[in-house]
Amino acid sequence: MMLGLAVRNPEKPMIRHWSGGAWRTTTWRDFAETVARVAAGMRARGISPGDRVALVSDSRPEFLIADTALMAIGAVTVPTYTTNTVADHAHILRDSGARAAIASTPRLAERLREAAGHGGLDLLICLEEAPGTTSWAELVATPGDLAMLVAEVQHIPEGRLACLIYTSGTGGTPKGVMLPHRAMLANRAGVLPLIQQLGLEWKGACYLSFLPLSHAYEHTVGGSLLLSYGIEIVFSRGADRIAAEFQEIEPALVTAVPRLFEVLRGRILAGLEKEKPLKRALFERTVALGLRKMDGPPLNLLERVQDAVLDRLVRAKVRARFGKRLVAIVSGGARLDPDLSGFFLALGINVLQGYGQTEAGPVIAVNLPWDNRRRTVGLPVRGVEARIAEDGELLVRGGLVMDGYWGDPEATARALSVPPGEAEPWLHTGDVGTIDETGRLVITDRKKDFIKTLGGDMVSPARIEGLLMGEPEIAQAVVAGEGRPSLVALIVPAEGASADKALQRINGKLSGIERIRKWAEVEPFTVENGMLTPTMKVKRRVVLERHANRIGALYS
């Protein structure tokens, strides 16, 4: 698909990224020709079909080039976060059996070398010059035959494994989700009608990408799906620049996790605090009327007149901050609070909540601008079946579903089930929800105890709690953070001890998304107060409910 697009549209802009103080453009021809050379360079250095290759890089053209080149020669890419600890990388390298890795910086290359340990990696490539590595420049200098590669990839079966994307599993240990080419192609086919209805196939439409390409959501949506419709991808310079980039880039589409909306709302409200009382009153009235239009009761004649005036005085200025060509911002990766999305919708910004999982390609459902039910995650995309199991868990199936977890048949059997008399497996999402009378999915809870942060990251509280309680200063601990921007902890210190130094030690061992940002001392968990089972296991849900106010205070 990707190389075919390059053959048909060689001069069309494909990627825009910031380098050397300016925006640089990569055309589809540039992309494809470099893919052919990198593919040849990989083969010359012993990479064969089925080999797993870790890809640890920030979002840049080389990521997509390497990803495509590896899949084109039958290798399996293992996209991995740049923020992972050495221990995280060690687990992924060991579990996947990766014999090669690509790092974007010398620091990451050294981290991978340390993670690989004794025996090391057969091949370590760095996008920048780094001692003891094969340079990206050497790969790109390898002669490549694009026509031959294009002919060769026509024979790749859609069921071939394309990538392993690691996600937290039931026991807290990251598991490799096996996504075949079929899963990502099924996502593309499912989203096609939505792209057509959104009218994004016009010349010059671009997509602003700020999530890392190692994130399953961005790997599919930004890395191939939107590109396949001819929409240029622009890599953001970071969350701190994205507000300015809305105006500078004027994207048609942005996909994001809920944390971005929290940041943007905070900036809007902070700016509002500096305005005169009249402007603040007009803004608040605009939001109130906007919410009324969505939720009722209907506006009366006077209110409709007010709303029309405020649309020009207030909403037009807010919309201008997001660029003149914005069609929608699609939120996924974690639950988007309806009040948060309602804030933007009331101001005339099309915020659409979607739903998906790494194990499903990852797009399962999404709302639409002209039919946006913000308390749902929308209708399943074309080709996706959904049903609710007896215990309330949402099950889905279709071509987008993974093949299973790498090297873990037991976890695969728990996640995928084939009912008697049926051929295709149902994916057990781990989410509890309902399907409303219109067919839209409503997610109400997590069946498992995993924490899904506001940024869409999945974190195992059990693992972190185990580390905390392994410290002499900490007797008991419960970690919280579902739907929040970061993790906090409720801690019962050991008698006469302070937990501060223990927290510092543990945070030094954890990745960025796992670190405890704040904590509160609470009473001991006992059988008598209902927070321990008779077998002395902490009742996490009871503890979290009992201390909901304390947790809320930590985020205030």
TrEMBL record:
It catalyses: a long-chain fatty acid + ATP + CoA = a long-chain fatty acyl-CoA + AMP + diphosphate. Keywords: ATP-binding, Nucleotide-binding. The keyword Lipid biosynthesis does not apply. Residues 7-406 form the AMP-dependent synthetase/ligase domain. PANTHER family: AMP-BINDING DOMAIN-CONTAINING PROTEIN-RELATED, LONG-CHAIN-FATTY-ACID--COA LIGASE. This is AMP-dependent synthetase/ligase.
